[in-house]
Amino acid sequence: MSDSTKHISAVRAVPRIADRADGRDNNFNLIRIIAATLVLVAHAYPLSLGGAYGQPFESVLHGLSLGMMCVWAFFAISGFFITRSFDRKPSAKAFLIARGLRLFPALAVVTLISILIAGFVLTQAPPTVFWSEAGEYFIRNMLLFKLQYDLPGVFQNNPYGPAINGSLWSLSYEVTCYVGVLICGVLGLLGHRKIFAGMAIAFLCFYALTAFVDLNPRIETLTTLGLPFLSGMVLYLWRDEIPLSWGVLAVMGALALAAWLTPLFLPVFAVALSYAVFVLGYAQWPALLQYNRLGDYSYGVYIYAFPIQQLVAQSGVTTPAINMAISLPFTLFCAVLSWHLIEAPAMKLRHLNKPPKSTDTKQAAE
Description:
Low-confidence stretches: 4-11, 357-366
Radius of gyration: 22 Å
Number of strands: 0
Helix content: 55-70%
Strand content: under 5%
Structural class: mainly alpha
Number of helices: 14
Largest sheet: none
Shape: globular
Distance between the termini: 43 Å
């Protein structure tokens, strides 16, 4: 075999994302649960010590905290799988039903539980004052826009303040990104990569503009979170060409390190992190693949951790490590119940309108 033939064989031996994107043998459930747990770890510091303390890595990574890195990882995964979901079943109705069943039943339960515990156990406000705002709290948090974080007389003396579930802030941005995928899908842009590439370049130009122009804070945050989400979309749409390469990941990591002291650090790091998530997500490590037998507990961890950590903080715990140690077991317990009793059964409902002869077995985590 000639050297050129060997080189071609070696290049072809590097798997593309498409080579591993169809099956369920991946590590994304594990990555999600690790990311959700690290959000709990990150939140333990401000919740125990006060909001002025901040989260790990913020001072080193130009304001990028551990919690935000994990949110970026979530958005990159969502960008890939939500795009795949519409691409495989290009129906606006099916898309909206699937997304709604994935997010809102569990959100409704955690919000209702929070209200009941706050109203009957925690609040120091008169019942008439508390319950007069409970309905608005539920509705606004279910709508995910103009969220309401506190209720009368609850967590008023906590180090971080009265927020009951501060983690919900990212869900409204995620839903906005879902709407973006839906619009692209309905307009047929997901099937025209040149047009989509032009839109991606336009987004990057707008992203660069945010560094020089003061915009609405919500638009700035959406743009920041939109970059890893867009990265996930790009990884899906160009899955046949993009390799899963540790060498490429090392180069991207080096570029992020080189950009550390420049304004380019955060966007380069966001793209590098997004790519790293998929190299790790599709790594063929049999021992790690066993985690998929358990289920996807990450969403439950994400939405239950904050109120549980606030309860621990209210008990007088002001040490982040102790807050983590106490909160994590209770959070995992709630997450397991949420998955098996709420989330998984809710997702099965999207199959009710399928034709009787359907044999769809696609991954439920989409």
